[in-house]
Amino acid sequence: MDRNTVLGFVVGVVVALLIGYLVVSKMNDSSPAPIAPVTAPQGGGMPGAPVAGLDQQIEATKRIVEQDPKNRGAWVALGNDYFDTHQRQKAVDAYQKALELEPNDANVLTDQGVMYRELGSFDKAAANFEKASKVDPRHMQSLFNLGVVLADDLKQPEKARLAWKKILEIDPASPIGTQASQALQRLDQGGGPAARPVAPFPPPAGPAKK
Questions:
Q1: Looking at domain 5-39+106-196, does it have CATH number 1.25.40.10?
Q2: Short-list 76, 158, 61, 85, CA closest to 110
Q3: What phi and psi, each to the nearest 5 degrees, are found at residue 73?
Q4: Is there a contact between 26 and 3 (Cβ–Cβ < 8 Å)?
Q5: pTM of the predicted model as reported, rounded to 2 decimal places
Q6: Radius of gyration of the chain measured on its C-alpha atoms
Q7: pLDDT exceeds cutoff 80 at 199
Q8: If you count DSSP H runs as helices and E runs as strands, how many of each does the chain have, helices first?
Q9: pLDDT one-digit tens code per residue, 84-122
Q10: Which of 26, 40, 73, 93 has its CA 20 to 30 A from that of 118?
């Protein structure tokens, strides 16, 4: 599945807040999904609880990878389902299996980076986003997410500024370009973002592909 997810961030100046979204990238035939926030776990319940229907889907996909450990598409699908059900470490591990089969996948690197960030592993998250942007210099999701982690978590606003400026060089009129521009304005005004995770769109139905 090909997911472009946005990791949420809030840029504040004194008491003013600007809410944006960090990008996540779900894999499906390399076509990006639209970017949109989901502010609560689908199906309700506590974070970490299975989303309705996904628990059975997870079990089915686990059986696929047990029988075919080199099925990269199934590993990505499993990582996406763990992502959607807020099982962060399991998502990281599933994405890692996919990356062992194809290490230069900017979308999977980005999704795994989002999970690293939610686990508090900010250096690993930044490293994933940096690698994704090197694999694909026009991958705006990884650049945007890198800026969020640098500005908010690692307290390196000038490096964040560089990441967001690259987005404006690629496509300033895009939704991510608009968010990057707003984030840069807040940095110029002395504010700093505080990110919050945003769930991605659910994966499209269909069998996992190699």
A1: yes
A2: 76
A3: -60, -35
A4: yes
A5: 0.74
A6: 16
A7: no
A8: 8, 3
A9: 999 999 999 999 999 999 999 999 999 999 999 999 999
A10: 73
